[in-house]
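Allow me, if you will, to draw on your knowledge of protein folds for a short while. Thank you for your consideration; the sequence and its tokens are set out here:
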Amino acid sequence: MSIFRYEKNMQEWLEDALKENHGELYSLIHNAESFEKMYKNQSKNKILFSFYNSLLSLHETEMISANENISYKKGESLKPDLMLYSYTTESLVLIELKNSSNATREAGTELGAYNYELSSYFPNIPKLDIVHVIISNEYPDLLLHHIRNMIFIQNLNILCLKPIVVQEEIRLEIIDTDLIEEVSFLPPLNNRDKIPESLLQSFQICIYDDELQKGGEDPSRLDKYINLFKTALNNMANTGNKLNSNGFAILWKDRSEISLAPYSISVVYMPSFEQMRFIDSNEIYEKLRDALDEFPAIFGNSIRAIASEVEKIMRFDNNCSISYEGFMDFGTWVNMDPLRCNYVSFISWGELFRDYHLKILNEISIESESWLNETHPYIACEFIDFCIDTEK
């Protein structure tokens, strides 16, 4: 049974409690301290991290608005129940109250709308500088799906609270995080915790010196652009991270003096839908697998956007052209003769590959300080051995 008869009563209680506590929302949460102790003493996951980060913003706050229109456009109405400013973390706290099961399904949608509207006021505000708090009597499936989306896909800070009565006083309680369920976005690994090579595809970005094709005799002309090529590699990684893609790239110089493409970038990536081959069957996945069998994933929107960063960097040189070639599966690529390649730099992107990258960097840098540079080109070899299963 709901503690409050109407949502309006819940809002009045919270506003009064914040005034009495001088903006200290944290002290109203009955299990805040026990949650923090639990967080510090057990292995972390995204849900705990999101809840804990949000909790840090609830110590010293200032009320900015209460059920007031924050819409940037005239004629529109967007009214978060409460908006606070946290002095502790220098962030905005959006609070959405729900007192009935029918209303809870709207909470995630409303928080998304308020978050977008605040971005209109502050176009460059980082995601973690807006904290989302839901206070609800119930957490039905649809609302939990919204919360999972905010945590795992959007990487937002969110805290879920529930009104309770403690010694005849109304307090708030952090909900059991098991309700949300940890979602794994990693592919199924084998028993050696490696990525099956069958999940990966590769291709080559060839950087041609058109002057060589016209009869030029200086195979080292593009050497002056080496730092630009490395910048392109970093831009590829930045784009890959934004798009939630997973992959890595190796910049190398061709040792062959007759090559018309003195530099190339080998790209290895995980096509978005290949992972579904390893998921328990259902009718939707089976249809998608059939489609992939008939038309294998080769060069989708995300990897095309990542690869285009090289072309953007080199547009100023009219005698330099970019070509995407050598599309093949990872197993074929990794067994090609590497003797013509002089590795220059290495980069990775995406939660999965960056995690592997940092693990291998930590392990091998202990052995030699010369490996402390994470873009060291020969980390690529160690990286492949460490995280990709190339055994049949």
